[in-house]
Amino acid sequence: MPLNIPEIRYVACFSGDDGIYHCGHCHGSVSDAMKCVVPDGGSFVRALEEGVFRSLNEGELIDFLEALSTMPWSAHAIKH
């Protein structure tokens, strides 16, 4: 009998004047969702598990922090 392991996807979200929106893509990883983040201070990544949005858990937050330095707009990625 197969295990019922919930599928978790990730979305890049941003806040607007009239609400919170997401990129419209369901990404398979936090680092992939980071590619849709706009570095304006109003973007973030949320998990989508069993049709419900939730905050990132501790492990996913670590993935988020590790992915930050790989983004093309990151200060670590910009060569001086």
Instruction: Summarize the main sheet.
Output: 4 strands, antiparallel
What series of H and E elements makes up the topology?
EEHEEH
Overall number of strands: 4
Rg is 14 Å
Descriptive overview:
This protein has 80 residues and is of the alpha+beta class. The chain has one domain. Helix content is 19%, strand content 29%. The protein has 2 helices and 4 strands, in the order ββαββα. The chain has a 4-stranded antiparallel β-sheet with strand order 2-1-3-4. Strand 1 (8-16) and strand 2 (19-22) form a beta hairpin. It is globular, with a radius of gyration of 14 Å. The N and C termini lie far apart (56 Å).
Short description:
The protein is α+β, with helices and mostly antiparallel strands. Helices cover 19% and strands 29% of the residues.
Question: What's the layout of helices and strands?
Answer:
Elements: E1 8-16, E2 19-22, H1 30-33, E3 43-49, E4 52-54, H2 58-68
Antiparallel strand pairs: 1-2, 1-3, 3-4
Features:
19% helix; alpha+beta; 4 strands; 80 residues
